[in-house]
């Protein structure tokens, strides 16, 4: 519901100042953002492989091949991809601010930074959750159904964050 409210703010502000939207949207680096989006979406794939390993009750790798990776290895890769996404967002913010688009510059800047910023905060929350699940896998004597369930719940959250980003990306970067 929170993100639905953010989408509503975005569409409301957009409908009241279409010329502003057109000029400010021209500052966005769509190829860069698309690459960053692909990284985030692929992180859902690696996350799901971690879930499959957790469901097999395999917390860690049994060998060096990717097919032998456990939940920890897949979640570490997912964490790294999520961190790259957040770093990309920070870089994008720095570029946009240097071009004069700040959160207080106009309604477009406010809507852009609020929607993408809250999403970024949720991604950071997911990264913290991955670290907790990975740490738990190392701290328990026997990796069981409780730990696997924890990993699965974190994956639900991660997939949700990815789906929300796809919606944001389409609305902010693709729809004119």
Automatic annotation (TrEMBL):
GO terms for molecular function: cytochrome-c oxidase activity. InterPro entries: Cyt_c/ubiquinol_Oxase_su3, Cyt_c_oxidase-like_su3, Cyt_c_oxidase_su3-like_sf, Cyt_c_oxidase_su3_a-hlx. The keyword Transmembrane helix applies. Its EC number is 7.1.1.9. It is found in: Cell membrane. GO terms for biological process: aerobic electron transport chain. GO terms for cellular component: plasma membrane. It catalyses: 4 Fe(II)-[cytochrome c] + O2 + 8 H(+)(in) = 4 Fe(III)-[cytochrome c] + 2 H2O + 4 H(+)(out). Keywords: Cell membrane, Membrane, Translocase, Transmembrane, Transmembrane helix. It is a multi-pass membrane protein. Residues 1-176 form the Heme-copper oxidase subunit III family profile domain. Its main location: membrane. This is cytochrome-c oxidase. It comes from Marisediminicola antarctica.
């Amino acid at each position: 519901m929170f993100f639905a409210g953010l989408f509503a703010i975005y569409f409301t502000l957009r409908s009241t100042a279409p010329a502003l939207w057109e000029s400010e949207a021209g500052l966005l680096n769509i190829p860069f953002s698309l690459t960053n989006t692909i990284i985030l979406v692929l992180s859902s794939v690696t996350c799901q492989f971690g879930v499959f390993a957790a469901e097999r009750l395999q917390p860690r790798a049994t060998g060096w091949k990717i097919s032998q990776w456990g939940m920890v290895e897949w979640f570490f890769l997912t964490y790294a991809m999520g961190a790259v996404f957040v770093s990309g967002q920070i870089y994008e913010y720095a570029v946009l601010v240097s071009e004069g688009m700040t959160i207080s510059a106009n309604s477009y800047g406010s809507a852009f930074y609020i929607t993408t910023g809250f999403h970024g905060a949720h991604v950071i929350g997911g990264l913290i959750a991955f670290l907790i699940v990975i740490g738990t896998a190392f701290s328990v004597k026997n990796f069981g159904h409780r730990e696997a369930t924890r990993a699965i719940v974190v994956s639900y959250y991660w997939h949700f964050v990815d789906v929300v980003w796809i919606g944001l990306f389409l609305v902010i970067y693709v729809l004119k």
